[in-house]
């Protein structure tokens, strides 16, 4: 799983880059209100940066169990039953990601003829975030199940410090 730790780190860095760019664009948008020149592209770019920052952060959050959960049922189960429960949830996420990928590819095809109004980029690059997210969720669900079978507990940022 050393490879997945590297992939986690790469996705985390990419997510931070997207989110930092998002912050810069939003601050630019706010500051441009006080100047005579308005940046019309900032709202659109901030939406796209937010989407891609979530696409790259979601799989890592899945692997590290950092989503908000109601853990009343799982915590009342024995450890092995908790692992089975978490694996079943991961299988459901895998099934969902298969459907998301199939329909995401169809949706991405719709973007071939459209361009972003202010940025002028082809919308296929924006719509491609859906199948990319589906592939990452599928891959990370498999890794999550393997981690549970090997009895590896999810690692938090605090554990790495």
UniProtKB/TrEMBL annotation:
Topology versus the membrane: Multi-pass membrane protein
One Pfam match: DctQ
Places the protein is found: Cell inner membrane
Transmembrane regions listed in the UniProt entry: 12-35, 84-105, 125-146
Top-rank lineage group of the source organism: Bacteria
Molecular-function annotations in GO: transmembrane transporter activity
Keyword Membrane (UniProt): yes
Sequence ranges assigned to domain Tripartite ATP-independent periplasmic transporters DctQ component in this UniProt record: 23-147
GO biological process: C4-dicarboxylate transport
Alphabetically ordered keywords of this record: Cell inner membrane, Cell membrane, Membrane, Transmembrane, Transmembrane helix, Transport
Main location: membrane
A GO cellular-component term linked to this record: plasma membrane
Family statement drawn from the similarity comment of this UniProt entry: Belongs to the TRAP transporter small permease family.
The name this protein goes by in its record: TRAP transporter small permease
Organism field: Candidatus Salinicoccus stercoripullorum
